[in-house]
Amino acid sequence: MQKRKMAPKEKTLEEIVVEIKGVTKVTEGGRQRRFSATVVVGDKKGKVGLGIGKANEVPDAIKKAIQAATKNIVTIPLTDGRTIAHEAIGRQGAARVMIKPAAAGNGVIAGGSVRAVLELAGIKDIVSKSLGSRTTANMAAATINALQQIKTPEEVAKLRGKTVEEILG
């Protein structure tokens, strides 16, 4: 019997570890220390996901977070392959993130976990503003929430029963 060599599965998603924090549960016997990891994965072509994993060791927490993030991938419609079609505000808990399309060459104007999500989504020109709470995980989730609200001109035209030219002016 001949063994066939399988081609290694290509890794199409990039990942960024946004946050690693130690969490402690106080019990009768003392404190139990574990780790929580927040990870963003994306293909830089319009797909991005966020995951949180907890474990006794950091590498295990990161592994769990990557698995959770790959399960939660969403697709974002990109305009001209570099920005979004319109402004949107995403909410998660008390965190709110506003994102606006920007002119070509502006770059990603965002910080922290918002920047990680936008870059892995493949957005090259965008302006963002953080409103409300600045919790790392909630900011990243609010950004994904805002990206999910984006509609293409074709979708808006279909909803309104008009042509794309009428929508774009």
Structure commentary:
The longest helix is centred in the middle third of the chain and has 14 residues, at 58-71. Helices cover 30% and strands 35% of the residues. Helix 2 packs parallel to helix 3 (136-148). It has helices at residues 58-71, 112-121, 136-148, 153-160, 164-168, and strands at residues 14-27, 30-42, 47-55, 74-75, 88-92, 95-101, 108-109, 126-132.
- State which percent range the strand residues make up: 25-35%
Question: In terms of structural class, how would the helical and strand content be classed?
Answer: alpha+beta
Number of helical regions: 5
CATH topology-level fold name of the largest domain: Ribosomal Protein S5, domain 2
Low-confidence stretches: none
Give short descriptive properties of this protein.
single chain; 169 residues; alpha+beta; Double Stranded RNA Binding Domain; Ribosomal Protein S5, domain 2; 2 domains; four-stranded antiparallel beta sheet; four-stranded mixed beta sheet; 5 helices; 30% helix; elongated
How would you summarize the topology of this molecule?
Layout: E1 14-27, E2 30-42, E3 47-55, H1 58-71, E4 74-75, E5 88-92, E6 95-101, E7 108-109, H2 112-121, E8 126-132, H3 136-148, H4 153-160, H5 164-168
Parallel strand pairs: 7-8
Antiparallel strand pairs: 1-2, 2-3, 3-4, 5-6, 6-8
Helix pairs in contact: 2-3
In short:
By secondary structure, the chain is of the alpha+beta class.
